[in-house]
Fold this sequence. Notes:
single chain, alpha/beta, Aminopeptidase, 2 domains, 11 helices, 6 strands, binds zinc ion
Amino acid sequence: MLKRIILSATIIATICNIIIPSSVNAVSTETAVRNIIDEQQTRKDTTIESPDLIPINENIINLDDNIIKIMIDPGHFDHYNRSPVYSPYWESIMTWKLSNYLREELQALGVHADLTKDSLEEDPSLNDRGFSSKGYDFFISMHSNAGAYESMDQPLAFVYQQLSWTTIDDTSAELGRLLAEKVSEVMQTNQKGGIARRQGTGDWDRNGFMDDEWYSVLFGARYVGTPGILMEHSFHTNYRATLWLYNDDNLKRLAKEEAEVIYEYFSSIKPQQYIVGDVNNDGLIDSVDATQILVYYAELSAGGDSTFNERQKAVSDINSDGFIDSVDSAVILSFYSYLSTGGTETDIKNWFINN
Length: 355
Ligand SMILES: [Zn+2]
């Protein structure tokens, strides 16, 4: 019955992905992809402007070079790609939620993150989604996959073709692999996550080589020089994976873990500077930061999971005793009152040592 449902869904969904697992052509953990129905191939668009003429998003024009900038693309729009095995699930709703959670988690890490669209209903062209990543450090298009077999339960990062003239393909492959493996771990998928490449059949960027990306969003991001991936969060044709992705708490956790991977990758390239004591990363050390530490401490004391990300942990142990607790919170409050009354020392650690 299940097979029949999937089979009929496959026939109807002519522009959706179908993946046949494994192949003799597979290179190590790279998954070979023969037959995909989720995304359209790059369009034969002959009116594409030169990459130099494509504008940079005004949100990042005046940002410091050292700020990590990520463009997140919530795949599809409105109600699109319903799961054939769990009908409340729509791929487009999941990607919209997950993208927004990911943006929040990245921002909490001090990363600048934008979305390719402003609402669930909005549907920018696939090329434009990729183009909008111009000037960003990374482009990630969020999806879940559809497979020929219900048993397929594997995250796949579609990464760039191997290119000799640039290193953006290396970033795409490296971070794609890290993210696919992390998604696999968090979702506890039956098959380990991996990367895949899919080549288009034309020379849409007119560089003289038939080396274009199959996926228009990746074509667009590569065209403007941004490393990118299309991340398939396992399969919405798999009951277990679909049920997992339908849960908001799971999506929040997934977003947090993905954000950490992206952050770790780019912070090793662009050293990040933090203000110790500025827990919420708003440029100020004040009572909000003190409160966040208290909440964190209370949650941990009650046996809950750590809710702080790596950046927050790094800036919260004010007295350097190895613990983030009510003492740190109290020091922040005293420092805040010191600053409010005209104090001139701006480094909270120095101030603490001297008081
Ligand atoms: Zn999709």
